[in-house]
Amino acid sequence: MSTSLTIGRAVRRLTLPVLLVLAYLAVPAAGAEFEAGVHYEVLPIPVDTMAPGKIEVVEVFSYGCPACFSFDTPLSAWLAQLPDDVAFRRMPAMVRQDWVVFAQAFYSAELLGVSERVHTPLFEAVHLRRLDMHDPNMLATVFRDAAGVDQDEFLKVFESFGVRSKTLQADAQGRMYRVTGVPTMIVDGKYRVYGGMLQGTNIRPLTVVDYLIDKCRAEVASR
Where does 146-207 show beta strands of DSSP type E? Predict the structure, then answer.
């Protein structure tokens, strides 16, 4: 069998998550001009931001998403150099019913004040340790080991009205963002960048995000 045929078959066996990871880790395009509808999308109805006076960047993600897990490393490096006029926040996605539990875990961490301490451990529990995070008791174990949260305290918060309310709000906002896949980046409530759009190119999503941040600055300056 020829080498080219072997390689071709290997490429066809790549799953969609793997292809998306390759898109996120690809080499950025130097001095690129990006086009709406090709490299990013313009939301038909802008969504109000939560950071007045700043350009808001939202990562819509899920702990259950393999591409989100891979994207977290380059995103962390990008966040380390975040400009002062840019505000960043994460928002859990619920494009799949079995991801609702991850949204509840996200908002439980937020209400308990341990978001940064459990963020990476939650990803690792799902994708490296292969634990069943749909079991609240297993989630409680991750919170205990990573942040010292008492199991009963975690379960009380996890099942609270506050967490349910925040989860419903995030689901509604995800619909306003018209999110169909993750990780997706929303820039200033107006622009959406999804790595699936860039599949097969050498363009990284964060390069497009930087372009859109500059675009937002120019829009403000021209008013």
Answer: 184-187, 191-194
**Cβ 171 vs Cβ 146: under 8 Å:** no
Q: ∠ at Cα 111 (46, 148), nearest 5°?
A: 140
Query: Which of 89, 100, 26 shows the shortest CA–CA distance to 59?
Result: 89
Q: What is the pLDDT of residues 80-128, one digit of tens each?
A: 999 999 999 999 999 999 999 999 999 999 999 999 999 999 999 999 9
* Residue type present at position 20: L
In the chain, domain spans: 16-221
Element housing 166 (H / E):
helix 161-176
Question: In this structure, what DSSP letter does residue 57 have?
Answer: E
| 167-178 pLDDT tens trace | 999 999 999 999
Query: What gap in Å lies between CA 195 and CA 205, rounded to an integer?
Result: 6
Tokens of 131: 């634990």
Question: Angle at CA 193, nearest 5°, toward 18 and 15?
Answer: 15
Contact 124, 66 (CB under 8 A): no
- Residues 99 and 93: beta-carbon distance below 8 Å: yes
Phi-psi region of 91 (alpha: psi -120 to 50; beta: other; left: phi over 0): beta
Instruction: Answer yes or no: are the C-beta atoms of 29 and 207 closer than 8 Å.
Output: yes
Which CATH number describes the domain made up of 16-221? 3.40.30.10
Place of tokens 């999503």: 205
